[in-house]
From TrEMBL:
Originating organism: Neorhizobium turbinariae
Residue span(s) of domain Tripartite ATP-independent periplasmic transporters DctQ component: 27-151
Name used for this protein in its record: TRAP transporter small permease protein
Transmembrane segments: 12-31, 51-69, 90-111, 131-152
Keyword Transport in record: yes
Length: 161
């Protein structure tokens, strides 16, 4: 049963990776296009800087759960190499629990900020105008999904190095 749930979770993490990849790809295309169009004096797109800002945010926060799921993050395992296998396993489990708790705290705070900006009706006023809470959706998703991944790892599921 848990393996089946973890398989579904893997697909969700892959979707996050896809969102991130599309965002970074779109970012590369838009920046290149902007440089090309500006240098040829064909057009000016003042809103493009904002779009690239938001693409970086979306891509980074959606990419984090996927990278964590694939164990693609940087691992500082100096201490793990100095202790025995059993102690190393316990240290890893402790780090997963710590990651889970930290992600839950950040999730809680990001939900509070999201609800606050929603209730107040805050707007982002730049070239594009929209509700500020929209910017918090990737943050909430990131910390919620990373918490799930850390929970799976603490339970013994998931990729490790």
């Amino acid at each position: 049963m848990i393996q089946r749930i973890y398989t579904v979770w893997g697909r969700i993490a892959s979707c996050c990776g896809l969102i991130s990849a599309v965002g970074f790809g779109l970012l590369a295309v838009l920046v290149t296009l902007d440089v090309f169009v500006r240098n040829l004096a064909l057009a000016r797109w003042p809103w493009l800087n904002e779009i690239t800002e938001y693409l970086i945010t979306i891509s980074t926060f959606f990419g984090a759960p996927w990278v964590l799921h694939k164990a693609g993050h940087v691992n500082v395992d100096i201490l793990l190499r100095l202790v025995g296998a059993t102690a190393a396993q316990w240290l890893m489990k402790i780090s997963y629990i710590a990651g889970f708790v930290i992600c839950l705290l950040l999730l809680y705070q990001s939900i509070r900020v999201t609800l606050d900006t929603y209730e107040v009706g805050s707007l982002v006023f730049k070239n594009l105008v929209f509700a500020e809470w929209y910017l918090m959706i990737p943050v909430v998703a990131c910390f919620g999904l990373c918490a799930i991944e850390f929970l799976f790892r603490a339970a013994g599921e998931g990729e490790t190095r």
